[in-house]
Amino acid sequence: MIERNFMMILAKISKSHVYRSFAWAFSVLVLIMVTGTLGYRIIGGPQYSWVDCFYMTFITVATIGFNEVIDLSNNPAGRLFTVFIALFGIGAMTYLLSTLTAFILEGDINEAWRRRKMQSKIAKLKGHYIVCGIGRVGINVAHELESTNRTSVIVDQDIQKIENYVFQHPEQLYLHGDATDNDVLLAASVERAIGIFAVAADDSQNLVISLSAKQINPALRVVARCHEVKNIDKTRRAGADEIVSPDYIGGLRIVSAMVRPNVVSFLDDMIKSDENLRMEEVLIPSNFSSELLTLFNPALSDCILLAIKQGGKWAFNPSMQHSVHNGDILMVMTTPNGRRRLEQLIHGVA
Prior knowledge:
CATH superfamily of the largest domain: NAD(P)-binding Rossmann-like Domain
Shape: elongated
């Protein structure tokens, strides 16, 4: 994070330096044009118009090489003045153009470098999540993944949406492209991801994303957004493991806010708290068999066990002497650090 902020500061300094250099060169050029116009007016006399004097200055600075508009054949002072205007004018013009060219090339080079660096980071990912579509739903999905310290890659066809999100989340990895394209999914390292969110605005896109992702990585868990109820079965058959309808979920939330307001308030406050509490599930790996007392230290309050799912059945509020085995799922209320500590402990014991 510090490195990223440092690079952003350097980029701002670099840009401000370019702007100042450009403004300085442009101001000098304008001053030379004004000086040349006034000088040729004085040298040539009133028989030459202001336009003639400006034109004479311009062709001198631009090195066009046309004939003299103002006759200086018998005016040594005028010719010396022309030499002065040419030297300083050509220098200012050259510096101005070189600054402009450097600014354009620097932007292109920086953008290409950022793309290569981003792709290199994504290519090394493993066990990450992919968010396809960074609209109203996708923004909240990506933000929740970041809040719970889960690595993700966002993919969208609209570069403006990506830039708006990355501006507020500088560490976010992203790809600009169509998530229905297999090449884009492969670029997002879908074959090594553990989950993909098909949350584009269109149901047909989410269906294709689910199908494509599942074909590349059958072990991938796919959660898809679906607006129309009639498309739920199609999306599920395409490979989506879970389908969420925002309208349906929103309706349930509205009812809950009415009939069980304290429960809703508790869940909201839990998410907004400084501890960043979440309801998390932790899978017990193979070759693991132990009592809960080995995993849950009573002295630590960052992880509260609520239930265990064993063989498709739930055991609520189990005792610390309860044994857990391969395939069991622990339902806990914990912080991101507490979840990570529990997972490390489980794999360490296993």
